[in-house]
Design brief:
By secondary structure, the protein is of the alpha/beta class. The chain is built from 13 helices and 8 strands. It has an 8-stranded mixed β-sheet with strand order 1-2-4-3-5-6-7-8, with helices on both faces.
Length: about 325
C-alpha cells in the first residue's frame, strides 16, 4: 500500500509538472497585439488598405516603374530591405506582409490558397492604381508570383522567381497526411529558442541568424491570429503540378537559386526552365554557397542581378 501511495503521488506530481509546463509555455508564448508589433516593426511609411476584407499592411518606396516583392513563408516584407535599398532608385517598390505573416494578420476567410493570394495581390495593385507591374517572389511568394503571371499575363511585365516552390519531388507519405484539428494549438507552445534551428535550417551560414533576427521572427509569428492562420495555410498547401501554369507564362523571367538550397534542390532550376515554354526569355542565375533565403544570404548580389534584369542589362 505504501508503494502504491508513493507511485500515486509521483504520478500526480508529474502530471502537475506537465500542466504547469504547458501553462508556462502558453503564457510565455502568448499572442502579441497588432499595436505592439506595429509600433516595434512597422517603421516609416507603413500603410494599410482593406483588400477583400483583409487589412493589408504595405509600403511603397522609390520612383519609376512599379515592382512588387512577395516575401518567403514565415518571414515578412522586412526581408526585402536590402533589395529595396538598391532598387528604389530605379523602381517604385511595393512590398506587403502576406496574410498570417508580419503585420497583416490572418485572413478572416481562412483561405490561404494561391488563388486567394493572387486576388489579394491584384486587389492591392488596383488600390494603388498599377494595371501592370514587375513581380518578384521568394519561396512561397514565388509561388504566388508565378501563379499570378500564369493566370493574368496581361498584368505582369517581368517576373522574378527566387527559390520558388512547386516542382514535384519525393515526399514522406506520413507528412502528406491531413493535419488534425488540434495541431493548430501546438503552435502556441513552441518556445522561442526552438526557432533558431528552424531559421538556420534553410541557410548555409548559421551565423547570419542573429539574436535580433530570432526575436523579430518569433514576435511577428506571435502577432495575434498569425499562428492559427499558419495552421490553416499548412492545411491548404497545394501539391499539384505547376507545369501547366508555368507553360502559360509569357513574361521574361529571371530564376535566382541558391546552389546549396537544402529545401528545393538546384535541379529545380532546369525544371523551371523546361516548363517556361512560352516565356519571352528565361534567365537562370545560381549562387554558389547559398541556401534558400537569398535576400539574407546574398542580398547585394541578388538585388543587383534583379535590377540588371529589370533594366534589360542581363
Amino acid at each position: 500500500m505504501i508503494v502504491l501511495r508513493w507511485i500515486g503521488r509521483l504520478l500526480a506530481g508529474l502530471l502537475l509538472l506537465l500542466v504547469l509546463s504547458v501553462v508556462y509555455l502558453w503564457w510565455s508564448n502568448r499572442d502579441l497585439s497588432p499595436e505592439y508589433v506595429e509600433a516595434k516593426y512597422g517603421g516609416e511609411g507603413l500603410m494599410q488598405a482593406d483588400i477583400l476584407g483583409v487589412p493589408v499592411r504595405y509600403k511603397v518606396e522609390g520612383s519609376g516603374p512599379p515592382l512588387v516583392l512577395l516575401h518567403s513563408h514565415f518571414f515578412s516584407m522586412r526581408l526585402w530591405q536590402p533589395w529595396v535599398d538598391i532598387l528604389k532608385d530605379d523602381f517604385t517598390v511595393v512590398r506587403y506582409d502576406l496574410t498570417n505573416h508580419g503585420l497583416t494578420g490572418p485572413d478572416p476567410t481562412e483561405d490561404y490558397s494561391r488563388e486567394r493570394g493572387m486576388n489579394l495581390l491584384l486587389g492591392l495593385m488596383d488600390h494603388l492604381g498599377y494595371p501592370r507591374f514587375h513581380l518578384g517572389g521568394s519561396s512561397t511568394g514565388g509561388a504566388i508570383a508565378w501563379y499570378t503571371a500564369a493566370r493574368h499575363p496581361e498584368r505582369i511585365d517581368k517576373l522574378i522567381l527566387v527559390n520558388a516552390p512547386g516542382m514535384p519531388r519525393v515526399t514522406n507519405k506520413y507528412m502528406d497526411q491531413a493535419l488534425p484539428g488540434w495541431f493548430g494549438y501546438v503552435l502556441y507552445l513552441l518556445p522561442k529558442e526552438l526557432f533558431r534551428a528552424f531559421l538556420q535550417s534553410p541557410i548555409v551560414d548559421d551565423s547570419l541568424v542573429t539574436d535580433d533576427m530570432l526575436t523579430e521572427f518569433h514576435e511577428l509569428y506571435r502577432r495575434e491570429g498569425n499562428r492559427m492562420g499558419e495552421f490553416h495555410r499548412m492545411r491548404a498547401y497545394d501539391k499539384s503540378d505547376p507545369r501547366p501554369d508555368l507553360a502559360r507564362i509569357i513574361a521574361p523571367t529571371l530564376i535566382q537559386w541558391g546552389e546549396a538550397n537544402p529545401q528545393l534542390p538546384v535541379e529545380h532550376v532546369a525544371q523551371y526552365e523546361a516548363a517556361l515554354t512560352q516565356a519571352a526569355s528565361v534567365t537562370p542565375i545560381v549562387y554558389p554557397g547559398v541556401g534558400h533565403v537569398l535576400p539574407i544570404e546574398a542580398p547585394e548580389a541578388s538585388a543587383r542581378d534583379a535590377r540588371n534584369f529589370l533594366l534589360g542589362a542581363l
